[in-house]
Design brief:
This protein is an alpha/beta fold. Helices cover 32% and strands 20% of the residues. It contains 19 helices and 29 strands. Strands 1, 2, 12, 13, 14, 15, 17, 18, 19 and 24 form a 10-stranded mixed sheet that branches. Strands 16, 20, 21, 22, 23, 25, 26, 27, 28 and 29 form a 10-stranded mixed sheet that branches. A 6-stranded mixed sheet has the order 4-6-5-9-10-11, with helices on both faces. β7 and β8 form a beta hairpin.
């Protein structure tokens, strides 16, 4: 989803900060102490992990490819790199030991209802008077955009499965038709709340602040005259009225477009006619009639004098706005596609003609016009959503960007991570030198993306000793400095491999464009494995250092997208670790060539080892707990749906293991059920940043183990995508991530709590009615405190 559109108002451009702290995440000072966070010395185990006593050897590194021809080199590695067996001591834990009561059949919450509950939490932020006013407008737009995507993908897919007879009962026990009817009823309630929040609360308060969102009949004559001139000069030339009669069939209505239904009468014949006018999507949705006064574009088009320009000589009886949502999910049969790029481009053309799944109309619409629309569009009565105007409140994104900082979240500028900015200097830091000293654990947007990950790739592109760069791209921006750096590297003679996931939903067209641009620059561009999306976030740099080759790596939870890196909360690891470099070499070889490798040294990779690796670790926590050793499971993800993972969590709870799940969106876990999940807590945090990181922490008998990476706990991620989690080695980094998880789950911070009935309850105040702060505010304030700018 878009993606589930991020939270409001991007922070300003990043700039360096003189922040200095110990080698843990920069937010540690802001978080409460955690008993388990003391650095732990982990004994070496014979499972492929490197120890300080292992002897280094030299071996050829075939993954570098043709670069070996022009520079002699060897690769520094350790014996344990050669044939690792990461899970050698976990094989016995992959299957349940049968201890504990049987799990009941109704143990899963419905995923579609859970998604609607997530969007309700977004709506609650818009309804919250403590949210800054323009941010409330932004959350209204986010809610609308999220719901659009939900209908385009989830509802459309459900309808398609019902129509083809392949739909089955959901894991929650509901029949497909029951799910669809629940969606219709629940989404109708939420859309009514959404419209009321705008009409009765946000719009009046904006007016009090001098931002008036008005309708045409509320404008002064002078304002109408000014807009009439604008209409004739800039709007009228791009409008195309389409008649509907025996000679003109009902026109195709594109998905998510705003449309004007015009009821006309011929004054001579007396015959009634219908016409459709599409509101141009490339024009600003709200037009400024005068300073501080904005009117919807569709109101300008439908003004009586303007319709006379469109339909001269005809009598306009009524006008009504409507909007159609269509099935816009893609279906590409890769096994039959000779060229995936060409097949996808054809499917993008077919997407425009997907069947309708929702019809939004103004509640004042004439029954005759509504029946005509229903008949021609072939939508049922249940799929019609009458709403007060204006329709399509995604237009509020434009209003939320107005330059009124006092009505937004306080300004926050990310700083350079302290390990990459040891001293203030006019010259850029040597990132490779920093990584030779120690790993760098990044937390965006609190740590600047541009001075860390982006700088890492830009330095690699210009460094004459860098021989090769290998990179995955799932989503990136239209003016991406990442793409520019890769192009510069290729043009300077470096070997550049870029794995572009051209099937990234709703970014397909942009990714096709950048794939072609990269190919033209001389990059080796591949599109991943047939039947699998490549969703992992990986970057590998191979550098000549004396007589050896060194590998520098980045593994992250977020896309290589500089703009969303200011809005999305993500974790990343920059490292010169030999095991991670070897793992990434092996994984890139699998993605670009032919390889059946399924196990790695410090990675868990889907679809082969990730689910089983996590389940084995969850099961092992139950054994630790029974033996009286420290045990816990802490998980932070966007979505928690996979039944096998959830069942493992239930069994761990039955064994007495405390389980914490921090989820942003969908969650099928039913917490707090006696004899099943009484030891499971589920929390959700929403705010100015979109919580996007995926972290997995285990008590591991007193030797904490922490992983993070790209994978959510969903079937598509674990079975149909290439995903990667990396194991965190540095004890200070493990402690910082554990502290983050504990703070997000704490009753002393603001969040939503999930109950066993599937209902979410917001906890935003303490017992005395004092407002609780969420973890995002705490992390921001920690940065400001270090700069002497803490909020009161």
């Amino acid at each position: 989803m878009n993606p589930s559109v991020p939270e409001p108002s991007p922070p300003p451009e990043n700039e360096p900060s003189p922040v200095r702290e110990n080698r843990s995440l920069q937010f540690v000072a802001a978080l409460p102490p955690a008993p388990s966070d003391a650095p732990v010395s982990v004994p070496a185990r014979n499972n492929g992990f490197m120890t300080q006593h292992e002897v280094q050897v030299q071996h050829a590194q075939p993954s570098v490819g043709s670069i070996a021809a022009h520079r002699p080199h060897t690769v520094s590695a350790v014996v344990s790199d050669l044939e690792p067996d990461l899970d050698a001591d976990l094989d016995a834990y992959e299957e349940t030991d049968g201890v504990g009561p049987q799990l009941p059949p109704n143990r899963f919450l419905d995923r579609e209802r859970s998604w609607l509950a997530f969007n309700e939490r977004v709506l609650e932020l818009a309804e919250d008077p403590d949210t800054p006013l323009l941010e409330r407008a932004n959350f209204l737009a986010i809610f609308a955009s999220n719901l659009d995507e939900f209908f385009m993908v989830r509802v459309a897919g459900l309808k398609r499965r019902i129509a083809t007879g392949v739909a089955t009962r959901s894991a929650s026990g509901l029949q497909p038709r029951e799910v669809l009817e629940m969606i219709w009823a629940r989404s109708r309630e939420l859309m009514a709340r959404h419209a009321a929040c705008y009409q009765e609360d946000v719009a009046p308060q904006l007016a009090e602040e001098g931002i008036h969102l008005v309708r045409w009949n509320e404008l002064t004559e002078k304002e109408q005259a000014r807009l009439f001139t604008l209409f004739r000069n800039q709007i009228f030339p791009v409008l195309t009225p389409l008649a509907v009669d025996p000679a003109h069939p009902f026109p195709y209505i594109s998905g998510l477009s705003l449309n004007l239904a015009v009821d006309l009468r011929n004054p001579i014949s007396g015959h009634r006619h219908f016409a459709r006018v599409k509101v141009p999507p490339l024009l600003s949705r709200f037009l400024e009639a005068s300073p501080g006064r904005y009117v919807p574009l569709e109101d300008v088009i439908s003004a009586p004098a303007h319709l006379e320009e469109l339909f001269p000589g005809m009598e306009v009886l009524e006008t009504h706005m409507f909007r159609v949502t269509r099935n816009e999910d893609l279906e590409v049969e890769e096994d039959d596609a000779e060229n995936l790029l060409q097949a996808l481009e054809k499917e993008l053309m077919r997407r425009r003609f997907g069947p309708p799944v929702r019809l939004e109309v103004e509640e004042s619409i004439d029954p005759y016009v509504l029946n005509l629309l229903r008949r021609e569009l072939k939508v049922s009565e249940a799929e019609v959503y009458p709403l007060p105007g204006p329709l399509d409140l995604t237009g509020l994104f434009g209003i939320s960007r107005l330059d009124r900082p006092e009505l937004k979240y306080p300004k926050f500028v990310a700083g350079t991570h302290r390990d990459l900015a040891e001293v203030e200097s006019a010259s850029a830091p040597d990132i490779f030198a920093a990584l030779r000293e120690h790993d760098v654990l990044l937390h965006h947007p609190y740590d600047s993306f541009s001075t860390s990950v982006q700088a890492f790739l830009e330095q690699a592109a210009t460094d004459p000793d860098v021989l090769a760069i290998k990179q995955t791209l799932y989503r990136t921006s239209g003016d991406s400095p990442i793409v520019d750096a890769l192009i510069d590297a290729a043009e300077s003679g470096k070997q550049v491999l870029v794995l572009v996931e051209i099937k990234a939903r709703f970014d397909e067209q942009a990714n096709i464009k950048w794939a072609r641009k990269l190919e033209e620059a001389g990059c080796h561009v591949v599109y991943g494995l047939v039947g699998l999306k490549t969703h992992c976030k990986l970057s590998l740099v191979v550098r000549q250092e004396g007589e050896t080759l060194a590998r520098y790596s980045h593994v992250g939870t977020g896309n290589y997208h500089p703009k969303t890196a200011r809005l999305y909360e993500d974790i990343g690891l920059l490292t010169a670790d030999a095991q991670v470099g070897a793992d990434l070499s092996d994984l890139f070889n699998r993605l670009s060539g032919y390889s059946r490798r399924e196990t790695y040294r410090r990675l868990l990779v889907a679809p082969k080892s990730l689910r089983d690796g996590l389940i084995a670790r969850i099961n092992k926590e139950a054994q630790h707990h029974r033996a009286g050793r420290p045990a816990y499971v802490r998980i932070k993800v966007n979505s928690m749906v996979d039944e096998a993972i959830i069942d493992a969590l239930y069994r761990a709870s039955q064994a007495g293991v405390p389980v914490d799940v921090w989820v942003r969106g969908i969650c099928a876990v039913r917490p707090g059920v006696p004899d099943m999940s009484e030891n499971i807590r589920v929390r959700s945090v929403l705010g100015r940043f979109l919580e996007h990181s995926r972290i997995f922490a285990f008590g591991n008998g007193g030797e904490p183990e922490v992983w993070f990476g790209s994978a959510d706990m969903m079937h598509r991620n674990l079975d149909r995508r290439i995903e990667a989690l990396v194991r965190v080695k540095d004890p200070a980094h493990r402690a910082s991530l554990n502290r983050l998880l504990e703070t997000g789950m704490s009753d002393k911070t603001s969040s939503w709590h999930l109950g066993p009935d599937g209902e979410w309850t917001r906890h935003a105040a303490d017992g005395d009615g004092q407002r609780l702060r969420n973890v995002q505010e705490m992390l921001i304030d920690a940065r400001r405190r270090r700069r002497g700018k803490a909020t009161p």
